[in-house]
Hints:
- There is one protein chain.
- The chain is α+β, with helices and mostly antiparallel strands.
- It has two domains: 4-121, Probable inorganic polyphosphate/atp-NAD kinase, domain 1 (Rossmann fold), CATH 3.40.50; 136-289, Sandwich (Tumour Suppressor Smad4).
- It is 32% helix and 32% strand.
- It has eight helices and 16 strands.
- The protein has helices at 13-31, 44-56, 68-78, 95-99, 107-120, 144-154, 161-174, 232-238; strands at residues 4-9, 35-39, 62-66, 85-89, 123-131, 134-136, 139-143, 178-184, 189-194, 196-200, 222-227, 253-258, 260-264, 269-272, 275-279, 282-294.
- α1 runs parallel beside α5, α2 crosses α3 and α6 (144-154) crosses α7.
- The two termini are 19 Å apart.
Amino acid sequence: MTSEITLFVNPTAGRGRGAHAAQPAAAALRAAGFSVRTVIGEDAGDALRRARTAVDGGTGALIAVGGDGMASLALQAVAGTRTPLGVIAVGTGNDFARALGLPVRDPAAAGALVAAALKEERIRDVDLGRVGATWFGTVLASGFDSRVNDRGNRMRWPTGRFKYDLAMLAELAAFKPVPYRVTLDDGVVHEVDATLVAIGNGSSYGGGMRICADADMSDGLFDVTVVGDCSRTTLLKVFPRVYKGTHLDHPKVTVHRAATVRIEAQGTTGYADGERLGELPLTATCVPGAVRVLGP
């Protein structure tokens, strides 16, 4: 492995924590004997081009410093290659890092872990989801949760997570379950009125909501969580249980496992790793061992 390591930095992540987090991460890597090069793009497209150039140039590892958005960009650069990925998670959600058992919002600890993993070659292969040419590490969300994202992204005020809390309340007042057609790789088609359908490679989204609580990133399968035709009252009762993953035993919740999943629903958007994919229908495929990650 080459000794040059690339730090892939989002300076605005976590209200500026990204820029500060790069410093202890770089210090830990240099103390371990690595040469560190930092990549900061002018925008997402430019950042991805620079990251891909570093990977194509043979960097020893790509270390994403930021939140889930930065981890998602890094996945687009390293998936399907032999370049290992490290994550210094300092964003708002950090669900990809959580799924990998990495430190969250502790850049010094994360930097030390990444440096030790590189020195000791503690690298493992984990699965990723893929929709067309886009890779995702955690959850493809659709339905109520994607409508909240749609509304929140249209709101200019307030800022931060409170914006999405308001968007959730607004959507809750208006939302009705929609007809879904879910096709799994066993050929079985499920037609159901659903509040949401989540396709999980990882277990959580939204900063720790364990919507696909039992998802395993090394089994070659998605966990597909279908929340049925809940009333608003039922949804309000079930929703808090998502943080512990105990919603899965509710009678309105069904879980399937499959390597390929196609979801169809009119007027519904899909988001993967918090990034908008587009309108349904979408087909997701679980790709075993698609990325090499540094970790415990």
